[in-house]
Amino acid sequence: MDKQIFSVGLTGGIGCGKTTVADLFAARGASVIDTDQIAHALTAPGGAAMPALVEEFGADYATPDGAMDRAKMRALVFADPGARTRLEAILHPKIREATVAAALIATGPYVMFVVPLLIESGTWRERVARVLAIDCPEEVQVARVMARNGLPETQVRAIMAAQVTRAQRQAAADDLILNDDGLDALLPQVERLHAFYLDEAARLTSLPNERL
């Protein structure tokens, strides 16, 4: 991309509070691009990925209104790693294309990509200047997801087991926000990092746009 813009990849395990934190950065002016929201749009009724998904997996994996049957697809990809690979082969290029397009028209001082599987995906690390991980103890994750989604503990832990461990996420991150103690504890961490990202964005835009 010709446009120089400072970018942050926000990630975290299920139930860590990625959306809450992303919303706080957005309220401070960051351009937040959520890959989950893009994926939902791609797999909604009439979504750009639906023809390829139906061709690959069959009409049984679409709901009557033409969206992807998320519960059915979730069960399939957890049972069959090959199905996950086939699903990602359809979705990931389209998600990447949409994120690039969104970043090009972003108006904030920096862009924050919300990518739940940023560390697992491998390619995202090279696309962002900083990785920000939202962290909390595993027991907190389990309790939040059970309360929010109504899932049994075994299913929540199965989802967590398919993601990188807390220690791996911490090791891969440039920045860390601990989200285990409510908004009052969260806000100072967001403010500190927002100020840092603003400084980094300003520094980047002051550099000459050199092509290697």
From TrEMBL:
EC class: transferase
Residues bound to ATP: 15-20
InterPro entries recorded: Depp_CoAkinase, P-loop_NTPase
PROSITE patterns in alphabetical order: DPCK (PS51219), PROKAR_LIPOPROTEIN (PS51257)
Reaction(s) catalysed by this chain's protein: 3'-dephospho-CoA + ATP = ADP + CoA + H(+)
One of the Pfam families matching this protein, by short name: CoaE
Source species, domain of life: Bacteria
Keyword match Cytoplasm: yes
MF annotations from Gene Ontology: dephospho-CoA kinase activity
Keywords on record: ATP-binding, Coenzyme A biosynthesis, Cytoplasm, Kinase, Nucleotide-binding, Transferase
Subcellular location: Cytoplasm
Pathway assignment: Cofactor biosynthesis; coenzyme A biosynthesis; CoA from (R)-pantothenate: step 5/5
CDD domains: DPCK (cd02022)
EC number: 2.7.1.24
UniProt entry tagged with the keyword Acyltransferase: no
Family: Belongs to the CoaE family.
Reported function: Catalyzes the phosphorylation of the 3'-hydroxyl group of dephosphocoenzyme A to form coenzyme A.
UniProt protein name: Dephospho-CoA kinase
